[in-house]
Amino acid sequence: MSELPLRKRWPTLVLILACTLGSGALVGFLTRDSMAVYSDIVKPSFAPPSWVFPVAWTILYAAMSVSLWLMIRKDVPSRATIVLYVVQLAVNLAWPFVFFTLQAFGLAFWWLLLLLALVIWLMVRAFRTGLVAAWLLVPYAAWTAFAAVLSFAVARLNP
After folding, report:
1. What gap in Å lies between CA 73 and CA 71, rounded to an integer?
2. φ and ψ at residue 24, rounded to 5 degrees
3. How many whole angstroms separate alpha carbon 89 and alpha carbon 8?
4. What is the Cα–Cα distance from 73 to 13, expressed in whole angstroms?
5. For 106, how many CA atoms within 13 A lie in the half-sphere containing its CB?
6. 39-81 per-position pLDDT tens digit
7. 72 or 89: which carries more pLDDT confidence?
């Protein structure tokens, strides 16, 4: 495996960060009117306050971006890794529409299980290129698993 030259490393990271964080911000903007759903539904006792979500996702999107950057630095021709990243990000970004806009809480649970499977697959690819890239995805997998449990509970409490 070869590494990208130093002059190509940082612009690539900035581009990945901009695309990932920008996509998350765009989805947040597009679903802003339906976010009131979270305050109106019955939630389990372990549900975090609504302000936690944008903070957590910003940190997770940054960690995901750095992980991808580390992976492509080590494995330049890996289109499969980039495609997997984009697919999991698209599934991730579609979830707020499923949960908040459609209020399809049961589907949101299954959607998160799909996302979790994609994140684990991405982690497996990351382990092939380096431990840091893989470990950066562990909080993402944990948060996605927590979100799935939360979605399951919400679906049960709001039939």
Report:
1. 5
2. -65, -40
3. 23
4. 10
5. 3
6. 899 999 999 998 899 899 999 999 999 999 999 888 655 788 9
7. 89
- Tokens 């948060």 sit on residue: 143
Q: What is the DSSP letter of 33?
A: G
Q: Measured between alpha carbons, how far is 20 from 100 in angstroms, rounded to an integer? A: 20
Amino acid at 123: M
Query: Which pair of tokens denotes residue 90?
Result: 């698209």
Distance between CA atoms of 97 and 76, rounded to whole angstroms? 33
Name the token pair of 52. 């936690």
What's the distance, Cα to Cα, between the start and end of the chain in Å? 51
- The number of beta carbons lying within 10 Å of the beta carbon of residue 142 is 13
Work out the burial of residue 1: count CB atoms within 10 Å of its CB; fewer than 13 is exposed, 13-18 middle, 19 or more buried. Answer: exposed
